[in-house]
Amino acid sequence: MNVHVKAPQIGLDGVPAAVTALSLVEGMAGELVIAGERIDDLARHETFEGVAARLWRLADPGTPLADPALFGAARTAAFAQARRICPSLVHLPAIDGLRAAIAALSVPDGPNAALAIAAAVPVLLATLEALRRGETPLAPDPALGHAADTLRLLRGRPATEAEARALDTYLTTVSDHGMNASTFACRVVIATRASMVSAVTAAYAALSGPLHGGAPGPVLDMLDEIGSAGRITDWLAMALDRGDRLMGFGHRIYRTRDPRADVLKAALMALAPETPRLALATAVESAAQAELARRHPGRKLDTNVEFYTALLLDALSIPRTLFTPIFAIGRVAGWTAHAIEHHARKGRLIRPEAVYDGVRP
Ligand code: ACO
Questions:
Q1: Which residue has the CA at smallest separation from atom 12 of ligand 1?
Q2: What is the pLDDT of residue 274?
Q3: Is 89 found in the same domain as 183?
Q4: Does the beta carbon of 250 lie inside 6 Å of ligand 1?
Q5: pTM for the full model?
């Protein structure tokens, strides 16, 4: 290989790994386009089921058109599998239990695989959680929207319209995001012609790390540790001095504020404008932006999606242990669409190279 790269810099920055019509991340402008629409417009008028269906059809126009009724039927079908899969996994933390449960799904590849997998994710999670609490898992209600039923299954009570709308906005907002780490993992696996369940399992595993989808729980931990406005400056300095990363800040692509942060902040304000955490969080956000700018003048580190994800999901009374699994309930639309698109465009095996700096015999 003739490329001269300093090993610590390697991270495939700027290297195209796919051609896609699903989403576009404009890092300098801070814009995100999903299914041909800017994220703020899309989140305003489209449901999660609508976005998923559009992504699947964009990936391959031959994909059957999914609608809320088909999502509901697919959740019901998934419940039979969840009751078989979940009892042996309740000893695992939720984030790991869901990974194992997705891996155990039996979904034949074919035109309906994306819908079956996407519908199964919240059902598996809610079944795991109910069993962990020693309760009888609720059966899905196929008449409800995906977000409303997800909240009902997870919390054991019907969601209000405002709560369902807030979760729907969240799921829509995180449904796809260019060649992020989990989508790349999905593409690598589907490109080997492994099953869609295998590709989604790999994607979920990549999502679970704190540098990707594992960040929102630690965002709340950070706010709890800071506790009050008077402690913000000292806490941030201490954390950064010992080399910690501030969860909910920084992004590989965005060199400005992550546009999803604004959409989620607006959803939070609509749902729970009085939430006590909001005032502290806003103060932490400004102080963190200023401190990161001071310490990294050459690298713009701004608020990312995870900061307001944490606040929104907390306002929906979702425990922080479920934040990453909830992210997967939205992002599975994108993962499955990328899997469809890879085959529809006759994608090749993805096989990069490594810079060898070991001993030559
Ligand atoms: N807090 C403190 N310092 C940071 C942060 C942060 N959140 N993010 C980056 N930096 C620093 C790095 O330490 C590095 O400093 P150095 O040059 O002195 O070594 C510099 O900024 C550049 O960072 P990179 O590692 O090159 O940034 P990269 O593009 O690889 O990482 C990432 C992006 C992983 C998101 C990073 O900003 C981070 O770890 N953020 C915190 C975790 C987080 O919020 N993850 C969610 C991301 S959104 C999503 O995936 C859905």
A1: 245
A2: 85
A3: yes
A4: yes
A5: 0.95
